[in-house]
Every structure is written in C-alpha cells, then in structure tokens.
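Model the whole thing, not chain by chain.
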Amino acid sequence: MIVIKDLYKIYQMGDTEVRALDGINLHIHPHEFVAIIGPSGSGKSTLMNMIGCLDVPTEGEYYLNGKNVSNLSDDEQALIRNRTIGFIFQQYNLLPKLSARENVELPLIYRGIKLPERKKMAMEALERVGMAERSEHMPKELSGGQQQRVSIARALAGHPPLILADEPTGALDSKTGAELMVMLKELHSEGNTIVLITHDNNIARQAKRIVRIQDGKITRDVDVDSEVVCE
Amino acid sequence: MILLSAVKMAWESIISNKLRSFLTMLGIIIGVCAVIILVSLVQGATSKVTESFDSLGTTQVIATAKRSYQTRTFDYDDVEDLMWDNCDLITGFIPKNSTSATLRVGGSNGTTPVTGTNEYYDLSTDKTTQLGRLINSVDVENASKVIVIGEYNALTYFGSVQASIGKTIKVNGLPFTVVGVMEKQTDTIAQYSSDDMALVPYTTAVNNLGTGALTGFTLIAKDVNSIDSVMSITKKFMYDIYGDSDRYTVVNMQEMLDKLNEMTTMLSGVLAGIAGISLLVAGIGIMNIMLVSVTERTKEIGIRKAIGAKRSSILLQFLVEATSVSLFGGIMGIVLGVIVAVIAGKIIGIAAKPTLWVIVVSLVYSMAVGLFFGLNPARKASKLSPIEALRSE
C-alpha cells in the first residue's frame, strides 16, 4: 500500500537547515491499522502531509498503491488525493455553508460523479456512520462528534483504499473520542487501510501497529499485539 | 458538471452575503444603466433628426455662397438654364431667398420670415397647402403680389384657415393676396414656430421686399443615382462664378445625413465610453471584494483542495462567482436602464431606442469585466497550497 524509501524533507530557515523528515523508511500493507505517534515538532505532521500527497519530499521516494507519487504536480496530487485517500481532520473541516450530505458529496463532485449516483453514494456513507437522518443538517446544527462522523462519511464516500486520520479525536471529549475509535476499528475490520496520526499513546494503542517518530526519524515500529508498549 | 456545481456554489456565496454582493453589483448596475440610457436616447434623437432630414428629401443638392462672398451673386435665369440644360438629371430648382417682413391686417401685425420661391417649392418638402395653392410659374413670371401663409398667420390675422383665402394682407406695407395656407407643421402652433411663415414668388421678393439677388439655390436631382452628376454640374457652375472652391459650398442631403450619422455614432461612442469607465471602476470593485473573499475563504479552499479539487476547479469556482456578480448586475442594469431611458425619453420627447445591439454589448461587456477582474483573485485562490490553507483559521 505505502512504501516510503529514504524520505527527506528539509526546510531552509535562514542559515539553518531544518530536517523535518530525516531518512524515513516505512512500509504499510493493505488492511493495516497504523498509528503514527510523536510529540509536536517531531515531524509527524510533515510525514502525514507526505503520506496524504499534500506535499512533495526534498529527496526520497514514495510509492502509493505501487505508483511513484514523490514528484507529482499540484493537479496530479489532487487527483491522487481524490481517488486514493480519505481525509479525516482534527477540526472536522466541514464546509459550513453546505449540508452534511453536500459535504459528503464534495469529493465525489471533484471526481466527476453525476448527481443521482453521487447522492446515493453520499447517503450510503452517512448511513455507515449513523448520520443518515441528519443528512440535510448544516454543520453548525451538529455536535462535534456528529460533525466528525460526517467528516468520516466524507472520507468513506468514494471508497478510497487509504483512510488518513489526523488527530481525529483531538477536538472531542473522551467519551465521543472513544466512540470514534470504535468506529475506526470497525472500518478497519471491514478491510479499510487506516493511518492514524496522534500524539496520544492511549489512542495509538488501539491501532494494530505503532510507528513512533522523533526528530524526523522513526525510532520505533512495533505491532501492538506482539509487544506491550510501555512509555 | 463541475461548472454546474460551481454555479450553485457561486449562487450560495452571493446570497449568503447579500449586502456585500449588492454593493459590489451596484457599480455594474449603474454603469450598464448609464450606457443603456445614454445610447438609447442618442439613438432616439438621431432617428428623429434622420427622419426629419429624410422628409426634406435626399435628392436635394444645395449650393450656397459663403457669407463673405455673398456680394457676388448669380442670375436666376442662369440657374434655370442650368436646370433645362440637364433636364435628364434635374427636375427642379428652388432659389434661396429669405427675409423677414412685417405682416399687417387691420390693426394687428407681426414679423414673419418670408421666403421667395418658385413653382418647384413642393419638391423640397413633403409639406403642401391645406387650402388654396402654392406659388406657381405664372406668379413668378409676373412677379404677382400673392402670398402663401402658415396656419399660425391665418389664425392670427383672419381667425380661421377658410377665412384667409383671397383676403389681402400687407407685407411691408404692400398689399398681397392670400392664395394658400400651408398645412400644419408642428403640434403647438405659435409665433416663431414653423407655422409662422410665408411664401411669395421669388421675383416679387426681389422686386418688392428687397431680398437682393440670389446667394444660393437648391437643385432637385431626378433620383438618388443622378446625385453625383448633379453635384459635379453644380460645382462647375459655382466655380465658374466664384473662381475658387473655397468661396461656396455644394452639399447634398444624403451627404449631410451621412455626416450627421457619423457624428451621432461618434457621440454615442464617446458617451458609452464614459459610461464604460464606470464599468471599469465597478470591475475593480469586484476584484477587490473577490480578493477579500479569497482571503476569508482560505480554509475552505484548503479543504476543497485536500479532498481533491484541482487548480482548475478552484479557478472555475471563483471565476464563476465573479462573473455571476457582474452578469447579474448587468441584467439588473439593463432592465433599469431600459425603463429609465423610456421614461426619460417620454419626458424630453424622444422615442428612446434601446436596441438589441446595445443590450447585447453591455451584457457581454459586464460579463467580460467580471471575468477579467475575477481572474487575478481566482488564480490566487487556485494557487494556494492546501497545507497552508488548511492551517489557516
């Protein structure tokens, strides 16, 4: 699914060189549930941007679904994001002027799917997250947890092979956060590949594999089932 | 498909910011409105003038000595000979011979423009007498003291049109017999209007009213095709007398009409151009508000790009939004402009002509303004990096 080889991202800040990613090697197989964990400033956000095809590396190679995506143009990246990746953001990032269903339809619009089909796919995704009844509600009429479910529906709607969740529980209270994790686990058990970015060990522990990143390097890569993680 | 949703998004964005959208549109509305009103009124005025020129006849060739050379004159008989020599081309000539004279009947009197003319008078105008007859060749031959008066004069001196025929009226103290009354020329019959006028035989005017010799004449060409020949004959005739082409003018109605049309086209062009400047200003307003909008919606742009919007999709969205504002403003401006032009035309007595041409041009122009000034903000939006945009609040 994801093959990252010797990936570097180097920023030039005046005279000093900042190595946000400093030689990352990472393989993620289909149907894996991986948590990428690290403190702020560790480079995990940069790694997420790389995996999410939002940014290009300074050096190194990134194969997504067997395709080298390390040196794509803006529009080629947009196409990959649209077809291959479902994003779940910390702040939900729903468009406030669109209803829940319209928000879920958005990636399908950019994929060029026509209206009846698009609506059907959006409703299926909302059904999946238990939000079908509120499909015509505006985001501000929904609670945080509900908004995050809508954003999960948006990520699922186009059936992308990879779901990328960036601190999905970050803005939720612990109860709704726990419910959300249950949902992610369900999605995983249904065969979705999920990459979860978090700084929270308790959240990370619910994944099947934990990749720890520090100073732009992977410091630890363990399977949760085979080893007890003590931090 | 993407276009359709772009239109929907643009619409939502416009109505979610009603006041701002309206204020942005106002510039376009006023600009388009001004273009429509000005051009419609100028066109209306032009066609009014053109119609009155047309009624004078486009087959007339008018020769006039310039003011400072009017001491040198030519003979009535020479002009008449010129006509007879070219009778295959010329059907008539009318001497130019006007003065003003005092008309008096009993105790009432007034000053009226009097024209000395001949039997061809009816060729130079579509107006004729409503009662009685015009000046004929016998009157000219005999220098008879006969007069054709306007309706104003008939009503003023005789009380009615019928009562004036055959009566005597004193012109500069000399008795003239009224032989005809001209048909009504204006709606409001008043002193100094076109209905306050008199025609006498040319010869009588020279002999008795002291109008002096001929300083100009009008030739009537047989048809439109003979105009060029008549023009050159007339020019030669005038040159032979004056010896310098700077001392006289020879024009024909068609030429004057062409010149007039040229001038009014230029006038409407200039007016539309001035109004067009306000559209330019409106365009800058659109650009300004679109730039603000792009900044405000950075987050939205980031989200859209993250979930797969290409540059072109974002570009399209903002372009459609800018163009919708200007197009919508344009339509409102056209409706308002047509209404105001028609009402204003009624008030000042011109039939305003909001032609399809003006409407289409202002519609296309306002759309182009939106497109042009929307391009920069839309490009700015489309080039935003999704990471940066997502990070913004």
